[in-house]
Amino acid sequence: MFVEFLWVLLLGSLLGLELIGKVPPTLHTPLMSGANAISGITVLAALTLIIKAGDNSVLLALGAVSLGFALFNVIGGFLVTDRMLAMFSRKPARKENR
């Protein structure tokens, strides 16, 4: 069973690497926003796991770790997206003193 999970991880990683390599730079920001939405779903799944864990400390720890990673991914993704969008904003005009 564990070997099957490793195969899925390996094939998913290779497929993701191949797909991301073909994305033009103009589509990077919309894809980042989509990735942030997917990470938001991961946050909800982690919260559900924590709520349903009850007295099971292993599930509680797993939910807490997954929630931390998902929040890190969401916040980092939004910071990167904001920084990229700031590159396209117009700079305020400077007043010249004469």
How would you summarize the topology of this molecule?
Layout: H1 2-21, H2 28-53, H3 57-86
Helix pairs in contact: 2-3
Describe the 3D structure:
There is one protein chain. The chain is an all-alpha fold and 98 residues long. The protein has a domain of 60 residues. Helices cover 78% and strands 0% of the residues. It is built from three helices and no strands. The longest helix has 30 residues. The model has no long low-confidence stretch (mean pLDDT 82). It is an enzyme of class 7 (translocase).
Secondary-structure element pattern, one letter each? HHH
Major beta-sheet overview:
none
Strand content: under 5%
End-to-end distance, in Å?
76 Å
The tally of beta strands, per DSSP, is 0
Please state the structural category. mainly alpha
- Report helical residue fraction: over 70%
Shape: flat
Give the mean pLDDT. 82
Radius of gyration: 20 Å
Low-pLDDT regions: none
DSSP summary: helix tally: 3
Catalytic activity: NAD(+) + NADPH + H(+)(in) = NADH + NADP(+) + H(+)(out)
Pfam family, one: PNTB_4TM
Keywords: Cell inner membrane, Cell membrane, Membrane, NAD, NADP, Oxidoreductase, Translocase, Transmembrane, Transmembrane helix
Domain NAD(P) transhydrogenase alpha subunit C-terminal: 6-90
Sum up the structure in keywords.
98 residues, mainly alpha, 3 helices
Q: Summary?
A:
This is proton-translocating NAD(P)(+) transhydrogenase. This protein is mainly alpha-helical and 98 residues long.
